[in-house]
Amino acid sequence: MDALNLPAPQGKPRIVVIGGGFGGLNFVHALDTRHYQVVLLDQYNYHTFAPLLYQVATAGLDAPDICGALRKSFRSKKDFHFRMLRVRGIDDGAQEVLTEAGSIHYDQLVLATGTRANFFGNDKLAAHALPLKTVPQARQLRHHLFQTLERADLTDDPAERSSLMTFVIVGGGPSGVELAGALSELRRHVLQRDYPDTDTDHLRFILVEGGDQLLAQFSDKSSDDALRNLEEMNIELWFGKLIADYDGRTATFKDGSTLHTHTVIWGAGVTGEVIEGLSDKSAEKGHYLIDDHMRVREYQNVYAIGDVAYLTSDKWLQGHPGVAQVAIQMGQRLAKNFNALAKNKETQPFEYFDKGNLAIIGRNRAVADLPGGIHLNGFPAWFIWAVVHIFYLIGFRNRLFTFLSWVGNYITYNRSVRLVIEPTLEEELREAHTPATP
Amino acid sequence: MDALNLPAPQGKPRIVVIGGGFGGLNFVHALDTRHYQVVLLDQYNYHTFAPLLYQVATAGLDAPDICGALRKSFRSKKDFHFRMLRVRGIDDGAQEVLTEAGSIHYDQLVLATGTRANFFGNDKLAAHALPLKTVPQARQLRHHLFQTLERADLTDDPAERSSLMTFVIVGGGPSGVELAGALSELRRHVLQRDYPDTDTDHLRFILVEGGDQLLAQFSDKSSDDALRNLEEMNIELWFGKLIADYDGRTATFKDGSTLHTHTVIWGAGVTGEVIEGLSDKSAEKGHYLIDDHMRVREYQNVYAIGDVAYLTSDKWLQGHPGVAQVAIQMGQRLAKNFNALAKNKETQPFEYFDKGNLAIIGRNRAVADLPGGIHLNGFPAWFIWAVVHIFYLIGFRNRLFTFLSWVGNYITYNRSVRLVIEPTLEEELREAHTPATP
């Protein structure tokens, strides 16, 4: 009995993959479907090149530049079946994935669900801070940014305008640093020209970091370079500050201080997208516990890869970093192991090949920690960053196009996609006319 | 007293323009702001190249390809002020435009508000049929199309699947014809490859026209060519059929017949966006009545241009056609008249120079009626259409890019932007599980 219009697997084991991110995509690519039927489930019909979400948020690129249609990616893959839906849970006894459209039987299950923003249970923060984990969120952030500036141009109240022109970014990791850099460039090259009636010198971008350095997982040299660059770009850097609350108008910090702002961007904590229904022992602190064959604890036929998985090793005592490369390599290794099993060959444990860390801060401003302890900054780091990102945009809209967009932006400083496609102006204005919460 | 952060006009008359469409945009471009202050109001921060909306709806182009940021377009224009907001009304006594953010005084007012879909007072139709007049609507239509196909791949009920795979387009004018053609190409070149588990031969596209021919305002030759092309492309053509009602599941026609479909696209009637507050005698049947100097009846300092205006002449006894060229030429003429007045020169009445009609139906399929009674079809018409449209995309994202996108699509048949960025899948599925209204 196969629901959801799925053909019977014809004697082959059926592998169900939940999530079309870096892990799931690379798993499906590497899997030999002569030996397995593969069913990919995702709530979106596209894969997101997440490292460039901040570019969509700051109008450097538009969504199709960093998204790839999943059905198109696997057009030539035999016995591959995509279904767009949300997963509700897992019945591990019946070996079924439960969805609103029906249940799907699996022989092997691969969990590649990734992470989402984690507001540590603070509902007010969750309701008002803007996360940047998905394409809709990136678009929403862009709409919010430009709409907030439009509103600053509509008010005659200096306090209101100052709050509208103050933007807070929470978290000094790569997303926070890259976003802050992009916003600074946007201010300099676009906003100052586009808003002649507003004094854009009063635009404040504040990066708030709980610890005492930026890019904690990078080398000290890179942290220092990032700091120097952001200071040169007029980003205010607040260290040792933790946000405690935000109601849409006033941010409150753990030390009791407050700040009036209409914008708090959330680049801080994330948690894994753990699905209901597996044994309580399979996950801890929002991540599936896996062995070096990516098997979820307590299960023989359930696997987890990428950000949602937690794997320690001699080299990675605190678990592997939550970066695309780990997800990609886990997906590939797991698929190769399945292929090996089908041919009665030996499987191999996962071993992470660390290619280093890269973060771009602006035009000719970037930091790179490469294998062998090599550290680069400035134009060389920027150039490597550009090449690596273009290279990995395989299967996307059009690598050439995105590259040209980029080069175009680089030469002309011209952000073309600063459009508020679906303004929520009425509600925003109505809100603006009610007194802010003290 | 100048609200909304607007500088005082310093002795110059202030012209307020409502609407940044073809009329408003060309008016502002041509106006000499050494003699006037100009304030442009729009609810969106971009201009839309409306003739290509159907391309956004069918995943050939994405929104930034056909949108131009208004602030960017007028960056170098002195004493130009853009404000993004919705207009609530006009106080003609006080000479003020009323908005939720405050009131704006005008010396001269230019109404360039365009049209919106008109469902003739049928709320059910308005709630369920999908119009295609704005970028958000085009995106919503694209999301709906692809999401409906995803749902067809999730159901095991043949009647439900057949309803999901039936798409109705209402109206045989240029929008309806161009959209039908684009959908047929999408079926042939994308859908048949992307949905291996669904028999896309069962995809039905039905174009419903109340009259007895397509493209009624074109030459008979063009109408016939359009008919032949759409028939060759397997579009079902229903003539003399008027839709009476649609509840989201069943379309009912005036002759009593019904059709089960999840999609009705509205390419039929439109009505002008008339604003509250002017004299009752100024507008009739949803359009401002203007003289040949674009002056609204009963007023000396209120003008209307483009689709929202109704102007008859010896040549255009039923009014001018609602096309971009009329709006462009009206905007230019009105600005030139203002410029002339400032220099005590004579103004000139509006006279429409008809450049002809063009409609594209598919790859190498188009019809063109050019000045001098010249009729073209096939590749020559298609080529002229492409050149004209690229030429008019001045100031947009990037003419080169859009052109390359196009050439790319032409060569590869590859639609890259078939993404459902913000699926409403949960609600859609829930709906699907409740019985359809009989």
TrEMBL record, chains A, B:
Q: Where is the FAD/NAD(P)-binding domain?
A: 14-331
Q: Which GO terms describe its molecular function?
A: oxidoreductase activity
Q: Could you say which EC number(s) this protein's record lists?
A: 1.6.5.9
Q: Which residues form the External alternative NADH-ubiquinone oxidoreductase-like C-terminal domain?
A: 355-411
- Mind telling me what this protein is named? NADH:ubiquinone reductase (non-electrogenic)
Write down the InterPro entries for this protein, in alphabetical order: FAD/NAD-bd_sf (IPR036188), FAD/NAD-binding_dom (IPR023753), NDH-2 (IPR045024), NDH2-like_C (IPR054585)
Q: Does the keyword ATP-binding apply?
A: no
The transmembrane segments are 379-396
Keywords attached to this Swiss-Prot or TrEMBL record, sorted alphabetically, are: FAD, Flavoprotein, Membrane, NAD, Oxidoreductase, Transit peptide, Transmembrane, Transmembrane helix
Q: Which family does it belong to?
A: Belongs to the NADH dehydrogenase family.
Q: Does the keyword Flavoprotein apply?
A: yes
Question: What reaction does this enzyme carry out catalytically?
Answer: a quinone + NADH + H(+) = a quinol + NAD(+)
Q: Which organism is it from?
A: Neolewinella maritima
